[in-house]
């Protein structure tokens, strides 16, 4: 198996994810050729699959890095064991060169409906509902049931939140 130590600058393509082993992280970097102006407009970017097991790098990638961030990663490029599989870069150093202009929300979104707050979670259809002061109201079965739950809560509590 061939390996090569290298430095790669690229943009994070998607939110980094926990790796297949505990304490690891995987992410993709979109890398543009250095001479992009000399190439045709439809020249594809290269996607480099990266992984790391370093606890500091893993923590930074899982908590602080967003799609669109420009990173410089240093590590060992490992050739795939069989043809057709992608090579991967095992990262041992990470530097943030620039941040994306728009922060990307992770897996949950907090929203407000007047005096009520709801939490949308990408992994479930059910929606927890609280008052703006943090009092538990209930669990709406789906987003369409939020209004009904808020209405019932308001009538039971005399409109007081």
Spatial arrangement of strands, main beta sheet:
1-3-4-6-5
Average pLDDT: 82
User: Based on CA inertia axes, which overall geometry fits?
Assistant: elongated
Helix and strand element order: EEEEHEEEEEEH
The overall strand count is 10
What helical percentage do the residues reach? 10-25%
| Residue runs with pLDDT of under 50 for 5 or more positions | none
The percent range for strand residues is 35-45%
Biggest beta-sheet profile: 5 strands, mixed, barrel
Measured distance between first and last alpha carbons: 64 Å
Number of helical regions: 2
Class from helix and strand fractions: mainly beta
Radius of gyration: 22 Å
List the main descriptive attributes of the protein structure presented here.
about 160 residues; mainly beta; five-stranded mixed β-barrel; four-stranded antiparallel sheet; 2 helices; 10 strands; about 10% helix; elongated
Task: Produce a short descriptive summary.
The protein is mainly β and 161 residues long. Helix content is 12%, strand content 42%.
Structural account:
A hairpin with a 2-residue loop joins strand 7 and strand 8. This protein starts with a strand and ends in a 5-residue tail after the last helix. The mean pLDDT is 82. The protein has helices at residues 55-63, 146-156, and strands spanning 3-12, 17-18, 25-31, 46-52, 70-78, 88-98, 108-113, 116-121, 127-131, 136-140. It is mostly beta strands. The chain is elongated and about 70 Å long. Helices cover 12% and strands 42% of the residues. The strands form 2 sheets. It has a 5-stranded mixed beta barrel. Strands 7-8-9-10 form a 4-stranded antiparallel beta sheet, covered by helices on one side.
């Amino acid at each position: 198996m061939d390996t090569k130590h290298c430095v790669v600058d690229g943009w994070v393509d998607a939110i980094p994810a926990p790796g297949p082993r505990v304490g690891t992280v995987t992410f993709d970097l979109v890398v543009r050729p250095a001479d992009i102006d000399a190439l045709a407009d439809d020249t594809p970017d290269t996607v480099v699959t990266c992984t790391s097991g370093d606890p500091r790098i893993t923590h930074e990638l899982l908590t602080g890095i967003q799609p669109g961030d420009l990173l410089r990663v240093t590590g060992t490029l490992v050739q795939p064991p069989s043809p057709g599989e992608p090579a991967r870069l095992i990262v041992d150093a990470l530097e943030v060169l620039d941040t994306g202009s728009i922060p990307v929300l992770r897996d949950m979104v907090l929203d407000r409906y007047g005096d009520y707050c709801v939490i949308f979670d990408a992994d479930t259809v059910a929606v927890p509902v609280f008052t703006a002061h943090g009092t538990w109201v209930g669990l709406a079965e789906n987003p369409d049931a939020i209004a009904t739950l808020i209405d019932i809560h308001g009538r039971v509590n005399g409109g007081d939140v």
